[in-house]
Amino acid sequence: MATDIGIDLGSYKTVIFSSSKIVFEAPSFVTVDNDTWEPIYYGEMAKQTLGRTPDSLICVNPIERGKISDYDLAENMLKVYMEDAFGSRVLRPRIMATLPAGLTELQHHSLANVIEASGGRNVFVIESPLAIAYGLELDFSTPHGYLIIDIGAGTTDIAVISMGGIAVCNSFPVASFDLDNQIIKYIRSEYNIEIGPLMAESVKKQIGTVVERPVEIAMVAKGRNVFTGLPESFEITSSEIYYAIKETASNILSAVRGVLSAADPDLVADIKNDGFYLAGGGSKIYGMDALLSEFLGTKANTLDDPEYSVVKGAACALRNSDVLKNVNYQLRSLKELEIS
Ligand SMILES: Nc1ncnc2c1ncn2[C@@H]1O[C@H](COP(=O)(O)OP(=O)(O)OP(=O)(O)O)[C@@H](O)[C@H]1O
Ligand SMILES: [Mg+2]
Description:
The protein is α+β, with helices and mostly antiparallel strands. 40% of the residues lie in helices and 29% in strands. Bound molecules: adenosine-5'-triphosphate and magnesium ion (MG). Adenosine-5'-triphosphate is lined by residues 10-13, 66, 152-155, 175-177, 201, 204-205, 208, 280-282, 284-285, 307.
C-alpha cells in the first residue's frame, strides 16, 4: 500500500509521522566506534552515552544545526528508524522531509538523497516554517504576513511567510542546545563542578526560565568537582539559571528583530495584529512565549505539542497537490532534480 510519510530529521530528535499519528521518534544520535566509525547504538541508547563514552566510542549527532553533517551516519540512522517504524510494511511511500529555511538547492538535494537511500521512493523537501504553516492551515497564499518562530535544539528558524512562500527568514544557529551549554559553563564557573549534557538538559527542563519566575524554584543536581574529581551534589535555583541563559535568550530576540527589520512594513503590521506562531521543543522553556510576546508587542500563538508541529505539517503539505506542483516552494522530487 502506498503511504504518505512526514519526516523531521532534527538536530535533537528524528520524528516520523504517518496515518495521522507519530509512528516513530528517537534522538538523532549515533554512538560509533572511534576507529572504524561503525555504529554501535542508535537513538535513546546512543543519547544515554552522551558524555559517558569510553575512549573507544564516540556519540555523534549526524544532524548539526539542522543540516546533515555526516551523510553515511544520517542514512544508516534513518534506515534503522524507518525499519523500526514500518518494518517491511510500507510500499512506494511518498515522503515529505523538512529542513531549515534558507538552505541551498544542493542541501535540499542531499537531504532527499539520504532519504531515498534509506528506503523512500518519492521524496520531497519542504522548509520547516512552511511545513508549520501547512499544519496550522494558515492561508498564506495572499499578501498577508505571518511570523513563524521554531526554536529547536540547534537552530531557531525565524520566517515571515506570505504570498505562498517565505518572504524573509533566518535559520539562526542558536537554540536550546546553547542553553544547555550556558548552564554547563555557569555551574563550572560558579561551583567548580562539571555537569554532563544530560544533567544540563534536565536542569533546563525542570527549573530553566527566560523570565524572572514569580516564585523561585530549586533542584538538586549532580556533577564532578573539577579539583577533587569526586562526585558532588549541589542545589541550584531558577534565578541562577535565568542569569546563566538570559544572554542566549536575548540573542534569539535580536535574531527575530533582524528578520522583522528586513520584512516589508505591511507584513510586519499584519503580525502586530495576528501575533506570532511559536513552535519547536525549545519554545517550551518557562517564559519563552511571554518574553517574545513582550519584546514584539504582540500575542504568542502557542501550539499544542510544539516539537511535532514541523513533522505534522510536512505530512499535511503532502496532501496538497498544489504544493507538490509548485517548484517555487523548491519542492522537487529527486527524480525531477536529476533530470533538471
Ligand atoms: N519542557 C522543555 N523545556 C525546555 N526545553 C525543552 C523542553 N522540552 C524539550 N526541550 C528542548 O527542546 C529541544 C528539542 O526541540 P526540537 O525537538 O524542536 O528540536 P529539533 O527539531 O530536533 O532541532 P532543530 O530544529 O534545531 O534541528 C531540546 O534541546 C530539548 O532539551
Ligand atoms: Mg526542528
